[in-house]
Automatic annotation (TrEMBL):
The keyword Transmembrane applies. GO terms for molecular function: transmembrane transporter activity. GO terms for cellular component: membrane. One of its GO terms (biological process) is amino acid transport. This is APC family permease. It comes from Arthrobacter terricola. It is found in: Membrane.
């Protein structure tokens, strides 16, 4: 029986969202999400886990995200829809796939505003005692974080225009300060005769890769590298509000990712060069600071930079959290439209054009997120792995839409047909590179999502095609858990590099399976093609992006 996917009557997802975002607003959203607390902390945690070879981590993570950005950009510009990263799996593979991916995405991003707020409190503890102690927020720090969450939500609560304007201002400020920081610390580390190790830090402390090159792979998820880059997907989540998605979405995503790769490489280099030589000699794990770049500025005697960083520690995470709250509201509304959450959460306020009920729910859940994980580092491990789990589904959706003939030749970005299976496998690799002890912590979270879907399936009496279209995804997740457990980050039965080879080839096979099941699902539900045709934009010529890929 065909499944009708359109929204109920009334003011709901997409129908009530307002197309007010241009190219620069989309770039501001992407960069505003990417440059959050990650730039303040990730360089330190990456260096602790991989030493100077963390530079490789940023290159690998950035390359994968650039490829993925092209994949999701094709979806966003061809079928623009708010909450699109949750809606596209519904169209290509059905409610099971969309429900599980939506659950993983929601868990992966619902903690972001709380994460950013905790980052603000951690930096603020250097001049406001009592906010952060012994590696976690104090009660005062948690209360301060809750107040920040309220501010982030309020800025989104009164419409996309206020959100875009406030974010553009914040983004302009926070781009300048990281660039200033990396330039000053690199120059200081190379020219001063103080405690900074400079170039010597690349050789001392165990050399360029003190923990082996494999360590540079593991920190992609656990040090916040994947989390930092993943912010660019907020552009696609908000694609339903773009004025010219065919032209602006690919351009904004590529601009964001390329800029971010260069910026984060510079910040990682600055941390390595400016780190105290005495600490590095004890091992990179000794390079531990509550306020990493701020502490390095103090050690170098650059007081003015320290105070700038203290101020920016409130601006950068706040700007990223504002974007995260906006994207998360659309994500929850899209999950409600998919039938995974109560339908009332998809309602769009007619005056302001935003999903207020979804924003309110996320605020409450964000408060709860602060209690069991009261620190930036405690949250980032879980968030990074959950993000990696969601990597591949956009690639499968692209493959299904192309093979079904829904994505026309004129709408195809050159090279995406090749990149789609590769990025799918890359997502599996990132999970397998994380130590098993951390990956295993996500199993109960995924199990809860499966139970929620089972209840939803039984109560709403979905057809068999909904299960058949997404069952492969659950098998794929099981494959990743098994491969990680048996691999070099687990019990070592499957040593490196063979564990990587197995996961990559397995990923290609699962990509093929997922596209086949997607085609069967769309054949069983022919109304989907009509829905997607209704969402298609009429792209203008001369976009600057080669097609026929």
């Amino acid at each position: 029986m065909a499944t009708k996917l359109s929204a109920p009557t009334g003011t709901t997802v997409s129908a009530g969202f307002q197309r007010r975002l241009g190219y620069w607003s989309l770039v501001g959203i992407g960069i505003g999400s990417v440059i959050g607390s990650g730039w303040l902390f990730s360089a330190m945690y990456a260096a602790q886990g991989a030493g100077p070879s963390a530079l490789i981590s940023w290159v690998i993570g950035g390359t994968v995200m650039l490829a993925l950005s092209l994949v999701v950009a094709e979806l966003g510009m061809t079928f623009p829809e708010s909450g699109g990263t949750i809606r596209y799996p519904l169209y290509s593979n059905g409610k099971l796939a969309a429900g599980i991916i939506g659950w993983c995405t929601n868990v992966g991003v619902i903690g972001v505003p709380a994460l950013e707020a905790s980052g603000v409190m951690q930096y603020a503890s250097s001049y406001v005692p009592g906010l952060y102690a012994h590696g976690s927020l104090t009660l005062q720090g948690i209360i301060g974080s809750a107040l920040l969450l309220a501010v982030f939500t309020a800025l989104n609560y009164f419409g996309v225009t206020l959100f875009a304007r406030s974010n553009n201002i914040v983004t302009t400020i926070k781009i300048v300060i990281p660039i200033l920081t990396l330039l000053v610390l690199i120059i200081s580390g190379l020219t001063s005769h103080g405690s900074a190790g400079g170039i010597n830090n690349f050789a001392d402390g165990g050399g360029f890769a003190p923990y082996g090159l494999s360590a540079s792979l593991g920190v992609i998820a656990t040090a916040g590298i994947l989390f930092a880059y993943n912010g660019a997907q907020a552009i696609v989540v908000l694609s339903g509000e773009a004025r010219n998605p065919r032209k602006d979405i690919p351009a904004a995503m590529i601009t964001t990712i390329v800029f971010t790769i260069v910026l984060y490489l510079g910040l990682q280099l600055a941390f390595i060069i400016a780190a105290p030589h005495a600490s590095v000699l004890k091992g990179w794990g000794s390079a531990m600071f509550d306020s990493p770049f701020g502490n390095l500025a103090l050690i170098a005697g650059i007081q003015w930079l320290y105070w700038i960083l203290v101020a920016d520690a409130a601006v950068s995470p706040s700007g990223s959290a504002i974007v995260a709250v906006a994207a998360l509201g659309r994500t929850v509304a899209a999950m409600a439209k998919n039938g995974f959450l109560p339908s009332g959460l998809q309602k769009i306020d007619e005056k302001w054009g935003i999903p207020r009920r979804a924003l309110a729910l996320n605020f409450v859940v964000g408060l709860a997120f602060l209690l069991p994980l009261p620190s930036w580092h405690a949250m980032i491990g879980i968030i990074g792995v959950m993000i990696a789990f969601t990597f591949g589904i956009a690639s499968v959706s692209v493959g299904v839409f192309r093979r079904a003939g829904i994505t026309r030749s004129a709408d195809r970005i050159c090279g995406v047909g090749i990149l789609a299976p590769i990025t799918f496998s890359a997502g599996g690799l990132i999970v397998s590179w994380v130590p098993w002890a951390q990956v295993s912590n996500t199993f109960p979270i995924l199990a809860i999502g499966i139970v929620l879907y089972a209840v939803n399936h039984l109560t709403q009496k979905h057809g068999r095609s909904e299960i058949q279209g997404g069952a492969w995804l659950l098998v794929f997740f099981g494959f990743l858990y098994a491969a990680t457990y048996l691999g070099s980050t687990g019990i070592g039965v499957l040593p490196a590099p063979w564990d990587t080879v197995v996961v990559f080839l397995g990923g290609l096979a699962f990509y093929r399976w997922g596209t086949i099941e997607g085609l069967r699902y769309m054949k069983a539900n022919p109304d989907i093609a009509d829905e997607l045709e209704a969402k298609r934009t009429n792209p203008e010529p001369g976009t600057g992006f080669p097609v026929h890929g």
